[in-house]
Amino acid sequence: MRLTAIAVAALAGAVLAAPRAQAQTPPGDSQAQPPHEQDEAEEQPEPMMGVELDDEGARGHFQVAQALFQTGRYVEAGAEFVQAYDLSHRSEMLFNAFVAYRDGADLERAVGALRRYLEVEPAADGVEQLRARLERMQARVAGQAELETERRSALAAQAEAERQRQGALARAAAESQRADEASTASAETRQAWVVTAAGGGLLLASGVLALVAKSRVDSLDAHCPNNRCGDGVDLSAERNHARRAVIATDALWMTGAVVAGVGFVLLLTADSNDAAEEANPNAVGAFCDGHGCAASYRRAF
Fold first, then answer.
1. Domain range spanning residue 268?
2. Cα(67)–Cα(8) distance, rounded to whole angstroms?
3. Is 43 within a domain?
4. Domain-located, residue 26
5. What does DSSP assign to residue 224?
6. pLDDT digits (tens, 9 = 90+) for 61-111
7. pTM over 0.85
């Protein structure tokens, strides 16, 4: 038994045609109607087309499409109408798909369905109005695509700016850390020189004290030959003074040598850090974002 879809389509046509009839105005009043109200009247949905379908699969898709349309699931209904056309090759299904997609605000698919319908039915009733409708919808789709492209470009530019800002902040932090390390290295170098100078001072003092000790010993030998001293000379006391001077000289010399050695090691360590800094003595960083610009400059010297 062949299932006829005309009754269902007629019902849908009546439901969809009613709002359109309310929006229409007599020809004589069209001049007084504002432009945006004219556009809204022109965009009211046309009634869908009913047709008898011989293919059972096409009839099934058509019935599902009608049910989806009646419940407001327009985009899904449009997809069912397209499948009905693929099976039946009835152009009315493409027109119905156009109406469903448009009512579902899927303009891109609505344009595709209407374009296919006009290709299949170039001499359809009201073809000029439909072609004008197609041109307006294509212009709207192109405008939406342009806006989407601009939006994506803006998002990409924002993401790139944020990436550059984060990179600049990371570089600035690294430069600040290197500057701190360079400052620490300079302080270590100064400390090393102080320690080395202190060791040198102790060595110099030990040299002076050694001369004093030698002078005492020479004086004692001159005044007390063969351990015999003249009147008024205490040989034991003089020997004790000379011995203490020698001990002090040895202590100063050993202490100075140790301190100077520590300072020398510290200098070698500081020099290795300075050599690393000299490999990259200058560093410049800069960045800008929506909050302003910042720059940094570092030089080792």
1. 184-299
2. 10
3. yes
4. yes
5. S
6. 999 999 999 999 999 999 999 999 999 999 999 999 999 999 999 999 999
7. no
